[in-house]
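Researcher: I'd like a structural prediction for the single chain below. Treat it as a standalone chain; there are no partners to consider.
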Amino acid sequence: MTILVKGPNGATVQFPDGTDAATIDGAMRQITGAPAAAQAEPVPQPDKYQQAAIEERNSLLPKQRGISDLVTGGSGSAPTGDAGFTRRLAHGATLGADNTILAAMETPLEMIKRGTFDPREGYNYAKAREDLIMDEARKNTGMLGTAAEVLGGGVSGAGLASGGLTTARMLAPEAGLLARTASSAADAAGFGAFSGAMEGNGLAERATNAGKGALVGAAAGGIIPPALALGGAAVAPVVSNIRARANPQAYAEGQVARAIHESGVSPNQLSLDVLQAGNEGQGAFTLADAMGNPGQRMLSTVARAPGEGRTAVVDALEGRQADQGRRVASALAEGFDAPQTAAQQRTAMEG
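Model: Treating it as a single chain, here is the predicted structure.
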């Protein structure tokens, strides 16, 4: 007896009775030219350290369930897991180094527990357990846990930057957006590289993760200053109006201080310039004139804004403009020692 098998192209192939299905399938693929079925990628199996951590975790689950039953009155609810938001917050605050630090601290106990004199073995067992706890924390907390982790990292990064661990300390006070963006990217790349290295096991994996972390950090850090600049420009008018209405005097003092800083002239020198102008008879000379362009911009802003300040500025400027001819004539008369005008001098000579 034979087995007749019809291929996808319509051809019929005979096989001896008793031929197994795998042989028939392979032969038909070769005869008909059909592609072999895609092989599923094998699931990576845990190594001995990871397997030990899994077994240890599983052995603790019945005990956790018993405690949970006592608390919940025997409802049979499952334990919430190995860790939660606190662990993820700590993971972010240490820039991912908590697993490595805890594993190093637990290494002597693991050496005793496993009966080994090799600290590397003890560390590997402890690190596998801490990694498993972190994995469970991420499963238990989801996106909120991710937010907590990012928050912890942000607080630590800001603290390190405040302590001087930042490239921003090398920037000039008047550094532009491009320089600040480069500094932010460099800082974030450094933190990303460190955090990535802490996530791995073994030098090769840690180096690979450090490179990935540096790239991601540089990209994220490079976006922050431009985003803040755009956001600040968008909300600055609103914030300024609120501050001006809430405390007009403090806001005005702040604006004057900003203009003085932009002018590059010290407050003492500005006072001397205004005082000297007054002594020379230039009573219309103001602080805005002494500050140059920053002062003129500030004065023009006040002149365009409705209110009492605009009225005072416009009146002062109009008064100065109206008196300009007399002041120029006085200056010329004083400078050339000619107290009389040309017309007055000619009338005096003709008489």
